[in-house]
Structure formats: structure tokens, C-alpha cells
Amino acid sequence: MSASRRSGTTDELGPDEPERDGGSASAGPESPGDPGDPGGSDLLAALLDGMDAALCAFDADGVVTHWNREAERILGWTAAEAVGRKGFAGWAVRSADAEEVEGRLLSAMHAPGRQVHEFALLTKDGGRVLVRTQSAAVRGPDGEPAGVYCAFSEVHAQIDLERSIALSEALFEDASWGVVLVDADLRPAVVNAHAARALGTGRTSVLGRPLGELLAQGVEELEAALTHVLAEGAPPAPAEMWVSVRTPEGEKRRCWRSGFVRLASPLAEEPVPLGVGWLFQDVTEAKQGEQEAAQLRFRANQLHRAARAAAECEDPAEAVTVHLDFALAGFADHALIDRVAGGARADGEAGEVRLVRVATTPAGAPGPSVLTGHAGLPLRYEEGHPALQCVDRAGTVRADAGSVPAERAREWALARQWPGDCVHALCAVLRSRGRTLGVVTFLRGAGRNRFERADATYAEDVAVRIASALDLASEVGGEPPLG
User: What local confidence, expressed as pLDDT, does residue 175 receive?
Assistant: First the structure.
């Protein structure tokens, strides 16, 4: 049904409509085009009916001239029932409130700008709806007030909109986690201050740049997640991603707990992806703490199991390999034990240090450590070898091949009589009863991280147990021990 009494839901009163009180019926707001032109009326009707807000208009006498479909949806009154009524009294507003409501609405004819009010309207079924209105004057060709238009919406809908806007602004200004809007091309479109700091750049300099320019590692995983969200929607739970961020101080490895939501246009009939909202929080310290705690629990359990197993060994030499095998799990790829030739070395003792291989992990396929060196032949370690340094210092020594090509790293390992795939080494001294018995060396390949201080502490704990078993084997079997 039309919003006027002629045609079109929001059409103005046309010339062919009956006049009221002997006056012209064209006192309502001017419409685009000729009022008598059906095309202009249909266009105005389509525009006003497409509005998300309810709209009504009054002429200078307070008679309703326009009523769009959103107004009908909210209040239930059709355009045929609304247009032509004088004011809201008795149908859209309680009679007791009608004078105040109409006075506030029509006062907009003589006030500059827009007037905002809140009051309760009546629905057709007798219910009450609290609405927020914006009203403004409609001027005639002579510039004099010719009526008032009033746009209104339910207060809760307006509050929801305001909350959404406030939330959006707060996320991009004050949020304590990173918020990034990524467009359909997987490039940042909006970045909040927290995210910019996490990425090591400014809020504007990051916009439109490929993610590969911002992250050194983890880009593929992040882009795969964003692509999945664009195609399938948000995942059911946050994802933890390890990335490396480029900073002026170098690359920094971080763990970001990330949540994703697909953004679609609310104006399209079909959901049109606008991009992805990516929210993340840096949980690097917490994850590292969890990993370190888990590692400590595992290593403590390994030491306990090794001690229990070694206690059942009749041969102390077998206990040496038991401790070595339990220590290798999750810690190193290879390990070997060298003893000081000719017996234990006292502190401050002068003379050349010679080492004999006692036990080693098998080359090639994994398996239990084996005892070697029965012939007692000294190893041909060159001067400055990490194992010799370990004996001289009676302390732990770490060594690395460094950032060199694979062939150079292989030459580095073979020159030290280690397996060719080793690039990281950790030598821990074997001490018992105040004497140096030898060295245990743990070796890692290129696929592992270098040994850290926590690794050295664990290796020293293992070395104490190996030294005790080695010392006992020497006492039981005589000198040379295990030879």
C-alpha cells in the first residue's frame, strides 16, 4: 500500500489527491522531479522504502504525508492507515502523551539543524516501542517551513549500532591485543597500535604490504589460515602460530595465539567477503615457560629411570651405557664417552692429556650405545679440541660449526672425529672423588637448535652419574678401566 493516498509507499501527496480543508494537497516535502511525473514519484518511493530507518513526514499542519515500510514494520500501521492522519494522537501515541510528542516533533520546523528525541510510540497491536527520532524542517520553495520529516528507529537497535561503533573504535585504539583487518588479497587494511608494535612497524607503513614483508617465518601458515577463513568461515578455536618478526635488532621468534573472523558486507544480499578480522595475543613467554616446564619434567623422569635401570646392572660398565642411552632421548643425536688414558687426572696435574674412547652411539641406524676402546689406543685429537679443553678446564664446553655450507660443516665434524652430520657439540667433564675421569660429548645435527645453558645443566647431571659408574668400573676391573 502506498505511503501517500495516491501511489508509491513514500510518495508525496500528488496533484490528483483530494484537497484538505480546501487547500492544496501539495504541502508536503518536495520530491525529486515533477510531482506529476510518475517516474519521479516511483523513484522517491523506492528510495525511502529502501531505507534501514523508519521515516514519516508531516506537513505544516501536522498531517502525516509519508510513511515508509520500515515504519510499518516497527509499529504495524500500514501506509494506508497512517498517511492523512493528523498527528499521532489516539493511534501511534497515547492521548496523554500526544501533545508533548507532537510539540517536540513539530518544533523542528522552527529550529536549526536536527532535533533528537526519545519517546514511546504505540504499535497497532497495542504494544509500546521506545524509539529514538531525528527530525528536521522541510523548506518550501520560498524558504519557509513546509513540514517536518522524522526518521526513527528502535532504541535498542540504535544502541546496538552505537555499541558496535564504539567497540570498533576501542579495538583499534585501546585494545591490549593485536587487531588487523586483512583484505581479500591478504594485505593489512587496518592495524591497531598493539599490532603495529608487535609487527615492529608503524600503523600506516604496514597498510597494503604483503605479509611476507613483515614476517620472516610463519607467513605460509598464516596466509593458509586467512585463506581458509575467507572460504570456509571462522575456525572453532584460536590457533597458536610461531612466527619470526623482522625488527631493527634482527629476527625475533614469537608465538601468537590467533583468532579469525570472516568479514562480510551487511549491504549485500549474498555474503560478500570483505576480508578477515585477525586478533592475536603474544603468548611467547607463556609457551616458552610451558615448554621449559615440560622439558624439565621429562628430563627429571629420564634421570630417575636411568638411575633405576643402572642400579640393576651387575657390570658398572653397562651402567655407563644405560645412563648415556637414557640421556640421548630428545636431547641429542649422537653421544660418546672418552676417558683419560692411564687413569684419573688430579687437579693441577701437568702433562699432555690423552683420551681413549670408552663408549659411543652406533653409526647409521639408531640403537643402544656400545662399549669400545678395549685396545686402549689414544684418540688423535688435535690441539684445541673441545674435549681436551673440557678436561683442561674441568668444566663444560660448547662448540658449533656456525653458519657454513653443509660440506664445510661436514669437514668441521670429521676433523674432530665426530659423525659428519653434527653441527652442535656439548662436552661435559666426568668428575668423581675430586678427579677428572674423562669427557662425555653430546652431538646434534643441523635439524636441532644449538645447546643452551639449560642443556649444559642437564648434561652435567648426566655426567655426574656416568662418572660414578665409570669410577666404579675402574675400581672393579683395575687399570686401564674398561680396556
Answer: 80
Cis peptide before 238 (omega within 30 of 0): no
In the chain, the N- to C-terminal Cα span, in Å, equals 108
Q: Say how far apart CA 169 and CA 308 lie, in whole Å.
A: 61
Q: Which residue do the cell numbers 587496518 mark?
A: 190
Q: Mean pLDDT over all residues of the chain?
A: 83
Q: Which residues contact 1 (CB under 8 A, 6 or more apart)?
A: 9, 78, 79, 80
User: What pLDDT shows up at residue 266?
Assistant: 67
Query: DSSP string of 246-307?
Result: EETTEEEEEEEEEEEEEEE-TTSSS--EEEEEEEEEE-HHHHHHHHHHHHHHHHHHHHHHHH
The predicted-structure confidence for 226-282, as pLDDT tens digits, reads as follows: 999 988 888 899 999 999 988 777 788 999 999 999 988 766 556 667 889 999 999
The strand order across the sheet containing 115-122 reads: 64-67, 54-59, 145-154, 128-139, 115-122
What pLDDT shows up at residue 254?
Answer: 93
Bridge partners of 139, per DSSP, are 145
Place of cell 616458552: 288
Cα separation, 31 vs 340, whole angstroms: 104
SS3 151: strand
Strand segments, DSSP code E, in 83-202 are 115-122, 128-139, 145-154, 178-182, 188-191
Q: Is the pLDDT of residue 439 over 90?
A: yes
Contact criterion met (CB below 8 Å) for 113 and 91: no
CA–centroid distance for 114 within its chain = 43
3-state secondary structure of 245: strand
The CB-based long-range contact list for 290-294 (8 Å cut-off, 24+ gap) reads 292/454
Task: Quote the cell numbers at residue 407.
Answer: 660440506
Q: What does the alpha-carbon distance between residue 25 and residue 19 come to, in Å, rounded to a whole number? A: 5
User: Could you tell me which residue, 378 or 439, shows the higher pLDDT?
Assistant: 439
pLDDT, mean of residues 163-175: 77
pLDDT at 337: 94
DSSP 374-431: TT-PPP-PPTT-HHHHHHHHTS-EEEE--S--HHHHHHHHHHTTS-TTEEEEEEEEEE
Cross-strand bridge partners of residue 145: 139
The answer to whether 31 and 39 have CB atoms below 8 angstroms apart is: no
Q: What are phi and psi of 2, to 5 degrees?
A: -75, 155
pLDDT for the residue numbered 129: 86
Nine-digit cell at 309? Answer: 635401570
Query: CB of 379 within 8 A of CB of 391?
Result: no
**Alpha helices (runs of H) in 64-94, residue ranges in sequence order:** 69-75, 79-82
